[in-house]
Design a protein that fits this description.
By secondary structure, this protein is an alpha+beta fold. Helices cover 25% and strands 18% of the residues. InterPro entries: Peptide/Ni-bd (IPR030678), SBP_5 (IPR039424), SBP_5_dom (IPR000914).
């Protein structure tokens, strides 16, 4: 989903990592050297769903800010290259099961305290401990002892029973060696584990986090990255400023960053064109027609390809959507090529696989449910007993999703005779709150931006029972078993082969519908002379020069 930054220093592992370049940008204005030591920029954003705690943030509005405020053990280069060390001095293993991690000495949190090995261990234990309710807790499942600290609700969130009390509060697989070294023992060899460590859920937390409530901390978060928190005015803006004691390579070249929350992306675009906004990650769909955005922005326009996919998911907890034949019928009734051609004017590609093809281990063309086949769709719908009532497809209305969601709904209505329509939820924050509360009354937009470059990230969080972003509560024991085998495979090749088997089952169940592969059209102000995009298309704020 996230994590940016350029990188230095290779991970000390024998395995090779690769990611197709996702596109980066730099622009040079005329007028000599760029100078910006005390400058300020304003970028567009969305209201975070929750207070800003790394292991409890799964959406991009809050995730983008966490990426800027924190630095983890590893980072993912902007050009899509192999994960490389950031705060880690070294990550060593001889068996892909026991990892010895050494961190760089005397780096600081924003409150002036030193980042130590215990700050990682304590943060991971807190995130994994199920009574704390961290949405990203499942990312710690590789670690030995996770089952002792994380228990599942036996009858789901709506049931009367509560999850049993965990046996322990700390995972047995985490051990602090000294201030700069800690050891991680996994339940089984896991070759992809070091690749994950740049994802925000693995960030360190300062001692101050553990002296109060997570919610209060998240309203005034303390990170260890190149910018620190200043203020948060709900649904208006979040202010950040340069952390002058930041000691790693990517230091800020500007001083202040304001993340402005817009209720409509057309308003943000108007500010971008007029010079009142310095960066917009995705221009509105309306601006794509006739390449209007290019004429509006000229050399300030940035086109890139990102490892993200536009998805529509099913709330499988709703009995109306529990028949896989119905779900497959709906998916087969959607003409993805028409959507990308007519709505996105060729700036997206129709999805044909379950993982974005830019991702290591992703197999192209493995989504047979993504094919357009009205006759088969009608046959499956009849076998499923039809669909009665209204099929509402929800989306957040504060970004450009109205046009394509309405087009999808119309195709389903025309091709299957289902009374389908699209409906917008005013803000992304409210939209995500409803999804997390399992209160969706119809299919819903659920796009995915990868957290780290491996196909595992497109399976375990989304389709394994209890996965951090398995919001529709899809569950298939065979998928779970294959994914577990894949996650504990001794090599990445073996892991990817086993995930491919799991994906074949997912393709038959159709828990969601991949619609398009992401193409991104961004823009910046004339004030910005140099900048880069991250590997997932976010602004790398440390690269900005004015």
């Amino acid at each position: 989903m996230r994590v940016s930054k350029r990188a230095s220093g290779a991970i000390a592992l024998g395995a090779a990592f690769a990611l197709v370049a996702s596109g980066c940008s730099s622009s040079d204005g005329e007028g000599g050297e760029a100078t910006s030591a005390d400058g300020a920029i304003t970028v567009d954003g969305t209201e975070p769903e929750n207070p800003l705690v790394p292991s409890n943030t799964t959406e991009t509005g809050g995730g983008k800010i966490i990426d800027w405020m924190w630095t983890g053990l590893v980072e993912y280069p902007n050009n899509g290259g192999a994960p490389q060390n950031a705060l880690a001095e070294s990550i060593e293993t001889t068996d892909s099961k026991v990892y010895k991690i050494k961190i760089k000495q005397d780096t600081k949190f924003h409150d002036g305290t030193v980042v130590k090995a215990k700050n990682f261990v304590d943060a991971w234990n807190w995130g994994a401990y199920s009574p704390n309710g961290a949405q990203n807790s499942s990312f710690f499942a590789d670690i030995e002892g996770f089952a002792d600290v994380n228990t599942a609700d036996p009858d789901g969130p709506e049931g009367p029973q509560k999850a049993p009390e965990p046996k322990a509060k700390e995972m047995s697989g985490l051990k602090v060696v000294d201030d700069w070294n800690f050891e991680v023992t996994l339940a089984a060899p896991t070759a992809v584990f070091p690749t994950k460590l740049g994802y925000s859920t693995f960030m360190p937390l300062p001692d101050a986090f553990f002296s109060g409530s997570a919610e209060e901390f998240g309203k005034k978060p303390i990170g260890n990255g190149p910018v620190k928190f200043v203020s948060w005015e709900n649904n208006v803006q979040i202010k950040l400023t340069r952390f002058d004691d930041y000691q790693l390579r990517d230091k800020m070249k500007v001083k202040d960053v304001t993340v402005k929350m817009y209720q409509e992306d057309t308003a943000a675009y108007s500010d971008l064109v007029s010079g009142n906004l310095d960066f917009m990650q995705q221009v509105p769909v309306a601006a794509l027609a006739g390449d209007k955005w290019k004429s509006d922005l000229a050399d300030r326009a940035i086109s890139s390809t990102t490892p993200s996919t536009g998805i529509i998911a099913f709330p499988i907890y709703d009995k109306r959507f529990q028949n896989p034949k119905l779900r497959r019928a709906i998916s087969l009734s959607i003409n993805r090529q028409e959507i990308t051609d007519k709505i996105f004017f060729g700036n997206r590609k129709p999805a044909d696989s379950w993982a974005n093809p830019l991702t290591p281990g992703a197999a192209p063309g493995n989504c047979t449910a993504c094919q357009f086949n009205v006759d088969e769709a009608k046959k499956l719908l009849a076998e499923a007993g039809g669909f009665s009532g209204e099929l509402v497809m929800y989306y957040n209305a504060d970004a450009s999703h109205k046009e394509w969601m309405e087009a999808v709904a119309q195709q389903v209505k025309t091709n299957l005779g289902i009374n389908a329509r699209a409906e917008g939820v005013p803000t992304f924050a409210v939209f995500r709150q409803n999804i997390n509360a399992h209160k969706m009354k119809g299919a819903y937009r659920a796009g995915w931006q990868q957290d780290y470059p491996d196909v595992e990230n497109w399976v375990n969080p989304l389709y394994v029972t209890g996965g951090s972003s398995n919001d529709g509560l899809y569950s298939n024991k065979q998928v779970d078993a294959l994914a577990k085998e894949a996650s504990s495979a001794p090599s990445l090749d073996a892991s990817h082969a086993k995930f491919a088997e799991a994906v074949k089952l997912i393709d038959q169940d159709v828990p969601s519908m991949p619609i398009y592969f992401g193409g991104q059209q961004s823009g910046h102000s004339e004030k910005i002379k140099k900048m880069e995009l991250s590997n997932v298309g976010e602004l790398d704020i440390t690269s900005v020069e004015l």
